[in-house]
Amino acid sequence: MAITVTNNGGNPGPKGINNSVFNRLDPAKYTSLHDFIDEVNAPDIRAQLVKTFGDQGITGFLKLTGAVNSAGTADEVTYWEEARLHQRQTGLAKGAVTAADKSFIIDGIHAQGGSGYDADGEDATVKPLVARKGDILLVGGVDRFIVSDVSVTTATGATEITLKSLLDGGITTGISDNGACDFPIVGNMFEQGTDQPDRYLESNVVKRTNPYAIVKEVFKVTGSQATNIGYVDLGGGDYRWYLKGEGDTRQRFMDKREMTLLLGEKATSTDSGLPSIDGTEGYFAALEDRGMVTSNIIGNTTSDFGDIDALITQMDKQGSPSEYAIYANTAQMLALDNMLANGGTAASTSGLAANYGAFNNDKDMALNLGFQSFARGGYTFHKHSWKLLNDPTLLAGSAFKGVCIPLANVTDPQTGAKAPALEMNYKASGGYSREMEHWVTGGGVLGFNNNGKDVAEFNYRSECNLITRAANQHVLIK
Asked: pTM score, two decimals?
């Protein structure tokens, strides 16, 4: 019986091969083995994974700046900040004040609880009554006037303050009618035998709250894909590609959690299409609301120390500590380098060497962690490149160029101990923590037997927020 091979186009031999022998180039002339032998050689595959963009993880800012971790037991964190010990008297001039005037009146002021206040007793547009009879006010930065009378209308709380010059001359710089008055109270004086002040000043605090943000992520792999072996060595001789996807998902989750704490906003929109979330105040939002914000990168507009000196002047006004960490993008780092290069030894004109208190006064530790330091005007600045602000897929094109973080205490940035400026909180109670939750479900895939699906599902969840204390001492570079 004759046996024939069917379904092969009439060609003898195995299906799929039309020619078992065919002409090739002259072996003396071929330029590669592929020209001589067809699809026989094993591909020369290099198992190492090329890090084309380097280490792309951007986490670590909060840890390296000394942000401490603390457990929380409510839907938001409530904390209080001290107000200024001294408050200026503000108001409006009642009538034009000229150089000849030895006396003038300030009005537009409301006593606490007056009709100018809202139900909570506060209103940013109201000028509060602070001055008392006998107080000395510094007018125009040079003239000393004493409060001779305080007139309060009980029904409305509207108040007028009469000021009289302590000298024969009048005011140095005139004030227009309804012109703004903003004078520090620099002391007081009373006649012999007079009573104590008729009013007293109560200390005030600022109550702040910040809700938690719930950050989530998920990664899935089928049972079939979990057993596939790829070309790339993912470490330790493991070639299962799903491990790369799971590892990248974990890193993206950690990056997004940190960016949520940096860029979060409290939700104020009433749009019904938005999810029902409170939002959380991130680091940048806190600084935009209450911190020092520059309009240009430091050192960009001058070749000397003008920019940094202007910043130091503002730091002095805020009672800032003497040590700061600067985290910034490449443009800001280069501007600082140019400033220091052009200034030469002027970086230490204050007569103080750089202080490395945040690194146990060890310069080598600062260098090992990537910090470079300089001193100016009694302040020490430790500068560090911030990868997040250089990433073109994230904040490289944003308005944010860097931050200056006060290092109020001696802090080991590797452990995060003793750093009150930034506090990262997470929900936890009774041994259950939502700082970094991770669990896997699957129907037998990778040994996880808790459902009937032929899929292993990796889940990530964190409920956290960031508290920025004394934001007035922080600097946002834009």
From this structure: 0.76
Q: Which residues pair with 187 in a beta bridge?
A: 136
Interatomic CA distance for residues 248 and 426, integer angstroms: 23
Instruction: Give the pLDDT confidence of 304-359 residue by residue, as tens digits.
Output: 788 899 999 999 998 888 889 899 999 999 888 888 877 654 444 433 467 776 67
Q: Residue 420 pLDDT more than 70?
A: no
Region class of 170: left (phi > 0), else alpha (psi between -120 and 50), else beta? beta
Task: Quote the Cα angle for 312-91-141, to 5°.
Answer: 45
The token pair that represents 75 in the structure block: 């839907």
Residue type, 295: S
Query: Alpha-carbon distance 162 to 104, whole Å?
Result: 6
Instruction: Give Cβ neighbours of residue 40 (< 8 Å, ≥ 6 apart).
Output: none
Is 217:256 a contact under the CB 8 Å cutoff? yes
- Rounded Cα distance, 28 and 399, in Å: 63
Estimate the crossing angle of helix 242-263 against helix 283-290, to 10 degrees.
Answer: 10
pLDDT of residue 415: 44
Paired tokens of 28: 């003396």
Ramachandran class of 13: left when φ > 0, alpha when ψ lies in -120 to 50, beta otherwise:
left
Contact between 373 and 381 under an 8 Å Cβ cutoff? The reply is: yes
Structure tokens at 57: 């993880």
| Element at 325 (helix H, strand E) | strand 323-328
- Tokens 């078992």 sit on residue: 20
Pairing of strands 127-128, 103-110: parallel
Q: How many residues does the chain have?
A: 478
Pull the structure tokens for residue 395: 């904040």
φ, ψ dihedrals at 119, nearest 5°: -60, -25
How many other CB atoms are there within 10 angstroms of residue 191's CB atom? 6
> Which DSSP symbol is given to 416?
T
Q: What secondary structure does DSSP assign to 213-268, as a single string?
A: EEEEEEEEEEHHHHT---SS--STT---THHHHHHHHHHHHHHHHHHHHHH--B--
* Contacts with 238 (C-beta within 8 Å, 6 or more apart), sequence order: none
- Residue 378 CA: distances (Å) to CA of 210, 320, 463: 34, 11, 40
Contact 24, 39 (CB under 8 A): no
- Tokens encoding 93: 């001039």
